[in-house]
């Protein structure tokens, strides 16, 4: 593999063949996350954090903020992919915590698709005329996706929709901001297509995406460990008045010391029973109780997500999806 770029010295095999079980305690998982995060912040000249407002990317953001403060490093900008189909509560959450944590957030959008949607007053599921889109989008649809129909539905969790609404604006942001490393919150156990990822993962083919690396500090976390880390580290460390020894609330009405849901850097959708956050029109809650009180070990985390996209994940990842 050619050097990309020549100032980097990272091990692209780190994590190869491993699983969450190779990091048996929460402390082991945290120690590795800190190590990967620090190397990412020190090695890359223009890193950025992929932040969705979900639990995994917010946990990753926590590690970035902690490592940056501890080692006198800069907190890089965050890239938020606005696919036009987010829950309103999630957008409010991102706006609130971006201000609270003084984050520089770049909102990446496929503005050509967005303009078409606005002009024609579309709602999710309505058809988009491919011939009306710009040259870049038509190139991706016809030449990269090899999609032959005249229209595609305005839906995030489909092959064309996901690529145009997430991957294309992500690649544009990488190019526009000259990003050499994307710090991402993907996990090995979350999905089969991600099980073979490494902590530093190359994306160097210029025919597919602007060459860059993926820096993935929380691969080793399983879903239970994510929530354990939130209630025992993330929330106590970032919320004034939260018990330092940690406290796991039963629900939004069970927060300690007069704190409310708005004071906690956990999306209200998780309090409401969602375990994975995707499109507003294709994601359903798993149960009524908060995500961390559900049977995480014996049920599927992404069961509430549209399965069409889940089944296409491997192909989408080959094209640059997270």
Automatic annotation (TrEMBL):
The answer, when asked if Transferase is one of the entry's keywords, is yes
Coiled coil location? none
Alphabetized Pfam families for the sequence = PAPS_reduct
The Acidic residues compositionally biased stretches are 1-21
Which residue windows does the record flag with biased composition (Basic and acidic residues)?
282-311
Q: Outline the segment boundaries, as ranges, of region: Disordered.
A: 1-23, 278-311
Asked whether the keyword S-adenosyl-L-methionine is assigned, the reply is: no
Q: Which GO terms describe its molecular function?
A: nucleotidyltransferase activity
Domain Phosphoadenosine phosphosulphate reductase stretches: 47-229
Please give the name of this protein: Sulfate adenylyltransferase subunit 2
- Superkingdom to which the source organism belongs: Archaea
Q: Sorted alphabetically, which keywords does the UniProt record give?
A: Nucleotidyltransferase, Transferase
Q: PANTHER family, from UniProt?
A: SULFATE ADENYLYLTRANSFERASE SUBUNIT 2
Q: What is the lineage of its organism?
A: Archaea, Methanobacteriati, Methanobacteriota, Stenosarchaea group, Halobacteria
């Amino acid at each position: 593999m050619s050097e990309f770029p020549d100032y980097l010295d990272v091990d692209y095999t780190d994590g190869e063949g491993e699983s969450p079980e190779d990091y048996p305690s929460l402390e082991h998982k945290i120690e590795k996350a800190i190590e990967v995060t620090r190397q990412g912040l020190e090695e890359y000249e223009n890193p950025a954090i992929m932040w969705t407002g979900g639990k995994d990317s917010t946990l990753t953001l926590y590690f970035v903020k902690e490592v940056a403060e501890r080692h006198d490093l800069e907190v890089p900008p965050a890239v938020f992919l606005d696919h036009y189909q987010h829950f309103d509560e999630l957008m409010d959450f991102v706006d609130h915590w971006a201000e609270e944590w003084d984050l520089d957030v770049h909102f990446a959008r496929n503005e050509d698709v967005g303009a078409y949607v606005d002009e024609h007053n579309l709602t999710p599921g309505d058809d988009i005329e491919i011939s009306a889109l710009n040259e870049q989008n038509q190139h991706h649809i016809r030449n990269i996706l090899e999609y032959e129909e005249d229209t595609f539905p305005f839906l995030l969790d489909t092959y064309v929709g996901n690529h145009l609404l997430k991957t294309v604006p992500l690649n544009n942001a990488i190019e526009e901001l000259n990003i050499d490393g994307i710090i991402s919150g993907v996990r090995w156990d979350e999905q089969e297509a991600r099980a073979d990822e490494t902590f530093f993962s190359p994306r160097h083919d210029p025919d597919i995406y602007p060459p860059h690396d993926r820096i993935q500090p929380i691969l080793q976390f399983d879903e239970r460990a994510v929530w354990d880390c939130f209630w025992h580290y993330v929330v106590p460390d970032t919320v004034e008045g939260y018990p330092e020894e940690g406290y796991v609330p039963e629900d939004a009405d069970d927060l300690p010391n007069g704190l409310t849901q708005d004071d906690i850097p956990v999306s209200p959708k998780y309090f409401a029973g969602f375990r994975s956050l995707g499109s507003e029109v294709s994601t359903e809650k798993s149960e009524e109780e908060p995500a961390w009180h559900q049977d995480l070990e014996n049920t599927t985390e992404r069961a509430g997500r549209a399965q069409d996209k889940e089944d296409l994940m491997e192909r989408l990842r080959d094209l640059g999806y997270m």
